[in-house]
Amino acid sequence: xxxDPFESLDHLYAAVVADVLDxxxxxxxxxxxxxxxxxxxxxxxxxxxxCRAVAVTAIPDEPYKLEMAAIxxxxxxxxxxxxxxxxxxxxxxxxxxxxACIAKGVxxxxxxxCTRDLWRLREMPFPVFGIGCTPADSKGRMDVVEFGRPITxxxxxxxxxDYILGDSDGVVVIPADVADEAIRLALEKVxxxxxxxxxxxxxxxxxxxxxxxxxx
Length: 216
Hints:
By secondary structure, this protein is α/β, with parallel strands linked by helices. Helix content is about 30%, strand content about 30%.
């Protein structure tokens, strides 16, 4: 039986997956260090659902239209991944959107922009990753122009159906075409790292451990 990717990702961490993807020749899969957990819920994993937002200078005729449509379209297990061009002028996210996503079984949001309502988000079991916070609303400042289409953030190109894993180290995107193999290898590497950790804790020299396992 093929392992459940969601359950497997829950047992992994970003650094080990990034290492495995490097070894597979997929060396451009990590988002920039600017994108980090903004909430106490600091682990996010799931299936990518893409969205792209751009800066605007006027209030649209139908503000939030595509943002709401994107959230209503998402399925259980999805993580909303938002390309917003590292916009720090306003907040894209907040408490009410997190509430809607929790009800749908969406597993988190990762975005190259800001959030607000941190006072409430800190009390919710919903991971929000972004580049900062500001009280300024996105209405008339930023608007979603498309969702469900391929996007590129920090040189990482992704599309719906890829997988994403973020934690306190940062965020890595796993292409769907190598996801099964990458997750399998990452689980093996975690097992190997546990062995290495035990040997280092017992005082075995680092060089000896590295020669034996090739893990550091």
